[in-house]
Write a structure and sequence with these properties.
With 241 residues, this protein is mainly alpha-helical. The chain has nine helices and two strands. 80% of the residues lie in helices and 3% in strands. Helix 2 packs parallel to helix 4. It is globular and about 65 Å long. The termini are far apart.
Length: 241
């Protein structure tokens, strides 16, 4: 893979994953409505907690994977807030919490089994998922706090922009980015401290925080066109309903 992409393998793969993951939200919403967005939320919250165990270097920063998958959950709550309701956005957050809890219970139950003498995969399973509980519970707490905060901020910005402009559709870019960028500060700081203190030294922790937030800034800006397109899809769905 590295031979194919050259010196920028990680950068190319991260950029491609950003495009694929964000764009996939649109057909999910178009064909399945809010339930399609709920499905992506569940998949993203589970897989992001595995991905974040992987450390890479990209764009001149040391960072964990999983940032893009976490970012798409903020995109989804913004779409649900804009097109459906605050209740639906909060339901997506609750589904993410439930799926994470269910996943950690199932994966930890695997550790209780006694493998057969012909088993060869259990050592690898233990290697990966022995670190999962701390990651999962850290991300679970941070996810709940930052996501509920994002939903609250989105609607607070919406009330302000509606009051200033007299039009509830204007300034979508402001409530989208204003809510996400603020809540991501809390998300980045809390998750890094809870998940990695004692695992990495202080300078690495700061590097993870800065790189993670830098990625969230980029992803927040990149998801704005997706929110606008999703609103058009929502408007079409409402006219057909």
């Amino acid at each position: 893979m590295e031979h194919i992409f050259g010196a920028y393998t990680n950068e190319i793969l991260l950029s491609l994953s950003l495009v694929v993951i964000f764009v996939s939200v649109l057909p999910a919403y178009r064909f399945f409505g809010k339930y399609g967005l709920y499905a992506i939320t569940i998949i993203a919250t589970v897989t992001a907690n595995i991905e974040c165990l992987i450390m890479i270097n990209a764009f001149g920063m040391e960072q964990t994977l999983g940032n893009v998958l976490f970012a798409v959950t903020f995109l989804i709550t913004d779409i649900l807030s804009e097109n459906e309701s605050k209740k639906d956005a909060n339901r997506a957050v609750m589904l993410g919490i439930f799926s994470s809890l269910f996943f950690v219970i199932i994966t930890q139950s695997w550790m209780l089994y006694v493998p057969s003498e012909n088993d060869f995969i259990m050592p690898s399973i233990r290697e990966v998922f022995s670190n999962t509980p701390r990651m999962m519970f850290s991300s679970l707490l941070v996810y709940a706090v930052s996501q509920f905060m994002d939903v609250q901020l989105y609607h607070a910005w919406w009330r302000l922009t509606k009051k200033l402009s007299g039009d509830k559709k204007k300034f979508l870019w402001l409530r989208n980015n204003g809510s996400t960028l603020i809540s991501q500060i809390l998300n980045t700081a809390l998750f890094t401290l809870l998940a990695f203190v004692g695992t990495y030294d202080f300078s690495t922790l700061i590097s993870i925080m800065l790189s993670s937030y830098a990625i969230f800034v980029v992803t927040s800006l990149c998801d704005t066109p997706i929110v606008y397109l999703a609103r058009k899809i929502g408007d079409v769905r409402k006219r057909k309903a």
